[in-house]
Amino acid sequence: MIVWINGTHGVGKTTTSRLLAPLLPDARVLDPEKVGETLMDIHPQLWPTDDFQHWDPWRPLVVETARQVLGSVGGTLVMPQTVLVERYWREIADGLAGHGIPVRHFVLHADEPTLRDRIEHDQVMGPSTFRSSRVGPYAEAARTWLHATAEVVDTTHTPPEQVARHIAEAVLGAPDASAPSPGQVRP
Questions:
Q1: C-beta separation of 75 from 11 below 8 A
Q2: Which of 27, 53, 102, 186 is most solvent-facing, going by the fewest CB within 10 Å?
Q3: pTM of the entire predicted model
């Protein structure tokens, strides 16, 4: 199984994923960004872009990497990655489904002022114009398709440990954590 943690940059995907993996049996974190970094290392560059997700090989390589890892070790993969282009998400989700790999898709959400504050005051990465540039596209994706395809978890006032516990309970089917329907925002 794959637990995909989506949402814009600065919302807490990486932190939540690190906290979530120990809460799920046989879980490992697989960061799809590393697949993008591999493609970025090709020289000369495939073609100019501001985001490796626009490179056609990225999506099928993410699917194949996940398939190979699950085929080798089983368990659950926690995959933190922002995907804001619906066609790209469909390609990944359909590819995984084609291999019989179930996916629980969660979107971490925070209001815009909170996101901008987190990005500006990030103690690890520092301020980032790239991350800031994705806040608007995230809002558009959330409004038009993203929230309708996932279980949305609001992180605005919720600590990462609690977000991770909520997702673990939803994945494991804890009686007090009924999974919201896609598009329903949960604290």
A1: no
A2: 102
A3: 0.91
Instruction: Encode the chain in three state secondary structure.
Output: CEEEEECCCCCCHHHHHHHHHHHCCCEEECCCHHHHHHHHCCCCCCCCCCCHHHCCCHHHHHHHHHHHHHHHHCCEEEEECCCCCHHHHHHHHHHHHHCCCCEEEEEEECCHHHHHHHHHCCCCCCCCHHHHHCHHHHHHHHHHCHHHHCEEEECCCCCHHHHHHHHHHHHHCCCCCCCCCCCCEEC
* pLDDT above 90: percentage of residues in the chain: 86
Range of the domain at 122: 2-186
What's the total number of domains in the chain? 1
* Distance of alpha carbon 164 from alpha carbon 150, whole angstroms: 16
* CB of 68 closer than 8 Å to CB of 36: no
| 96 closest CA partner among 136, 61, 137, 127 | 61
Structure tokens belonging to residue 112: 């815009």
Q: Alpha-carbon distance 104 to 156, whole Å? A: 21
CATH code where residue 124 lies: 3.40.50.300
